Amino acid sequence: MTDKPKVAFYWCASCGGCEEAVVDLAEKLLDVVEAIDIVFWPVALDTKRADVEAMEDGSILATFVNGAVRTTEQEEMVHMLRRKSQLLLAFGACAHLGGIPGLANQSDRDTIFDVVYRRSPSTVNPDGVVPQTQTTVNGYKLPLPGFYDTVRTVGQVTDIDYVVPGCPPTPGIIAGAVNTLLGGDLPPRGTVLAPDVALCDECDRKTTKPETVSLTEWKRPHLVDVDEELCLLAQGLVCLGPATRAGCGAQCVGANMPCTGCFGPTSRVRDGGGKALAAIASLVGSDEPDEIDHILDGIPDPVGTFFRYSLPASLLRRAPIGSRNNTPTATTERSE
Amino acid sequence: MLEVTEDRGAAPEEFEPTIAAFFCNWCTYLAADLAGTSRMKYAPNARVIRVMCSGRIDPQFVFDAFAKGADGVLIGGCHPGDCHYQEGNYKALRRYRLTKRVLDALGVEPERFRLEWISAAEADRLRDVMNEMAAQIKALGPADFSVPDETFPGTDPGLDATAEEAVVS
Q1: Quick one: A165 and A254 in the same domain?
Q2: Which of A102, A200, A241, A295 is 20 to 30 A removed from A82 (C-alpha atoms)?
Q3: For residue A2, is pLDDT > 70?
Q4: Is B12 in the A-facing interface, judged by CB distances under 8 Å?
Q5: For residues A20 and A3, what is the distance between their CA atoms, to the nearest angstrom?
Q6: Which residue of B has its CA nearest to A320?
Q7: B86 touching A (Cβ < 8 Å)
């Protein structure tokens, strides 16, 4: 064994894009491996849970956890990695804010099971089997992960030290985070390791934003020819740059796609979705209720637009359990 | 010695909704003042929060109110054209319409979130709105955004030696 600093990576409810972001460091990853010892990384290494369990508490310098917490297994792993690690970092939008999996907080377990295992047109499940928390193999009763009603961020499950934001974190943000950790001069606990200003601040289109923007129509990016120079808001696209933290280099905006808010809000904001909503509503160019509604019809999924990455981290966190929109019956009516 | 003398065990208490009411300093708050000095009686469910303008109301205030246990949120502002700051109430209106869409999508009943234009002279309107909203929400019951603790009885999610034996054998 070496005495290089030990680092671990783990994934919870996520798509694998954050793992990809680490692999995207390409040859630089080899330099990283020179400097550190990766002791646990399920996507790439064969270390088992029991090996981590056997490590001494606090023996891992830093663990990067990506993904939201949806199951009992994920929760247990997060708690264990917290014990084993001096620093625990939420890596990526799902660990930070709940992410795309967090949109499931519009629903609940029973509804999700009903749709996925019974009602979706591609499902063939005549016995109506849904996930259980126990199974029997060769006469042994085995526990299986339980599926929570509510998706949580890693920070809602255990104490985290830092956040590496993004869906996924960009190479620049990852390098910056690693340099911060190795630099020794650590920022206050809980800091998001990215600039604490809005994305517009670093956007190339900033100078083209008119003094006032007043829109009578919201446009969707796949239905319009996007001007490559002009501020996207001025073009009628729902760009969340004004309510999103900078640090990504405005890559999406540079590719003619509006910002969807994956870095989350700045530190002065309590509810990123609420702020984004306020910013977008203020650009609606009408004083008449009916016309305002007509213009807002151009944003067909307001929760998915403003809370795309942040529903579990929002003030409301989820739709009320048992509310009219997320009972199995309501889903049945909609799907048939 | 302190003794609890009140008998709380009798009839189940009727649900009394809590309404967070954000009132504009120049119109609706004065209407509430007028209702008070006129000794009007109306449902006491609102906790009134005075803001300088309905345009000050950030959607975060609304979400925070619901998250902290409000069963309804009422915004009171000046009639269109009457805003002390020219157009703050229009800003409030646009935000309200979009915030309402988010709450609708989350399954929150429309009666729980309301915007009303109530001028300083319309104390009777204020009374009627308060009474109506309190009655509607009382009929709906509490708004519950709490995230309940979830447990899975009889499961230990960890794989133990027995489990590994089982898979291997």
Answers
A1: no
A2: A102
A3: no
A4: no
A5: 27
A6: B145
A7: no
Calculate the alpha carbon distances from A203 to A169, A193, A245, B128 in Å. Answer: 18, 19, 11, 50
Which of B102, B137, B144 should be substituted to probe chain A, the one whose Cβ sees the most A Cβ atoms within 10 Å?
B102
The token duo for A142 is 């085995």
Contact A277 B105 (CB under 8 A): no
Q: What's the pLDDT band for A27 if we cut at 50, 70, 90? A: confident
| pLDDT tens profile A99-130 | 999 999 999 999 999 999 999 999 999 999 99
A296 domain-assigned = yes
Residue of chain A whose Cα is closest to the Cα of B80: A287
Q: How far apart are CA A148 and CA A35, in angstroms?
A: 38
Domain holding A21: CATH number? 3.40.50.700
**Domain stop point among A192, A219, A254:** A192
Residues A55 and A182 in one domain: yes
CA distance A74 to chain B (A): 10
Which residue of B57, B61, B98 to mutate against A (max A Cβ within 10 Å)? Answer: B98
pLDDT digits (tens, 9 = 90+) for A205-230: 999 999 899 999 999 999 999 999 99
In a domain, A82, yes or no: yes
DSSP state of A309: T
Regarding whether A204 and A186 lie in a shared domain, the answer is: no
Domain ranges of chain B: 19-140
**Does A294 map to a domain?**
yes
To the nearest whole angstrom, how far is the Cα of A247 from the nearest Cα of chain B? 24
What pLDDT is attached to residue A315? 97
Is residue A184 located within the same domain as residue A219? no
A177 and A285 assigned to the same domain: no
Mean pLDDT of B110-131: 97
Question: A296 to chain B, minimum CA–CA distance in Å?
Answer: 7
| Co-location of A166 and A285 in the same domain | no
What pLDDT, on the 0 to 100 scale, is given for residue B169? Answer: 46
Chain A CB within 8 Å of residue B110 CB: no
The pTM of the full predicted model, rounded to 2 decimals, is 0.90
| Burial zone of A290 (CB within 10 Å; 0-12 exposed, 13-18 middle, 19+ buried) | exposed
Domain B19-140 belongs to what topology?
Rossmann fold (3.40.50)
Residue of B nearest to A136 (CA): B166
How many domains does chain A divide into?
A: 2
Does A176 lie in the same domain as A258? no
Task: Using CB atoms, pick whichever of B63, B97, B101 lies closest to residue A289.
Answer: B97
**Residue in the structure block whose two tokens are 């923007």:** A213
Residue A322 Rama label (left phi>0; alpha psi -120 to 50; beta): left
Residue range of the domain that includes A176: 6-98+151-192
Task: Please name which of B149, B164, B103, B141 lies closest in space to residue B12, comparing C-alpha atoms.
Answer: B141
Confidence at residue A326, expressed as pLDDT on a 0 to 100 scale = 56
pLDDT at B161 exceeding the cut of 50 = no
Segment B125-151 mean pLDDT: 93
In a domain, A324, yes or no: no
Query: pLDDT at residue A328 above 60?
Result: no
Find the range with the poorest average confidence among A27-41, A106-120, A247-261. A27-41
Determine, for residues A76 and B64 on separate chains, whether the beta-carbon distance falls below 8 Å: no
Residues 37-56 of B with CB under 8 A from A: none
Least confident of A16-30, A233-247, A274-288, B38-52: A16-30
